[in-house]
TrEMBL record:
Similarity field: Belongs to the exbB/tolQ family.
Membrane topology per record: Multi-pass membrane protein
Quaternary structure note: The accessory proteins ExbB and ExbD seem to form a complex with TonB.
Protein known as: Biopolymer transport protein ExbB
Pfam families, A to Z: MotA_ExbB (PF01618)
UniProt KW keywords: Cell inner membrane, Cell membrane, Membrane, Protein transport, Transmembrane, Transmembrane helix, Transport
GO CC annotation, single: plasma membrane
Function: Involved in the TonB-dependent energy-dependent transport of various receptor-bound substrates. Protects ExbD from proteolytic degradation and functionally stabilizes TonB.
Record's subcellular location: Cell inner membrane; Membrane
GO process annotations (BP): protein import
Membrane-spanning residues: 17-38, 128-150, 175-195
Amino acid sequence: METGTLGLDVLWQQADVVTRGVALMLLVMSVASWYVMLDKLLRLALFRLRSGKLLAAFWGAPTLKDGVQQLGQGSAWAEVTHAGISAARQHRDALDGDMNPPPFSEWLTRALRQSTATIGGKLQGGMAILATVGSSAPFVGLLGTVWGIYHALMKIGLSGDASIDKVAGPVGETLIMTALGLAVAIPATLGYNLLVRSNKQTLAELSKFAFELHDLLVIGARATPRNGLPAHSTFNAQAEYV
């Protein structure tokens, strides 16, 4: 784009407070959306890279305690596992305290669902920013365009020269605001859709793991067959850890 009579630099120099405010707002929206997208995509990528090894180490451990140590700290898998173990201990304490808690399977199911829902809430963090930017940025840019065209036409009217060469420059520069709004909104919308799908896949994997962990704590074995063979375990998970 030429920088003599047309361009972003000329638009900025000729802009008033409102136009500059709209441009700065679009800049802030763009930075915020890209930060959220890159941060969440990086976290999801690391999660998927680690998941296979962590789960293989967990299910391949000789005891549940060894499996928990393999998961380490901070991962979503470890959070779900600790929630299940904590629920098992609480149920045991309730029974030892002569209370009448719900059946262990139901008690454990509630704890695992709550843990999975909590992780799902964390995955949704920042998604509102992307949704807001994707839906509002085009209108913010359009506001800057309308305001800029109004002032451009006012200047043309005061000068009394409405020839095409005088109109094209100021009006064309204000239309840049619409393009900037779209440039901010399109990546945010695409990133939002990508992250929504990735979050759903992650929650589906966590739910599957929670179901298998439920079976492990209740009956001491995974109910889901692996490699076509029935799941089996050499230890009683609940008795061992609770």
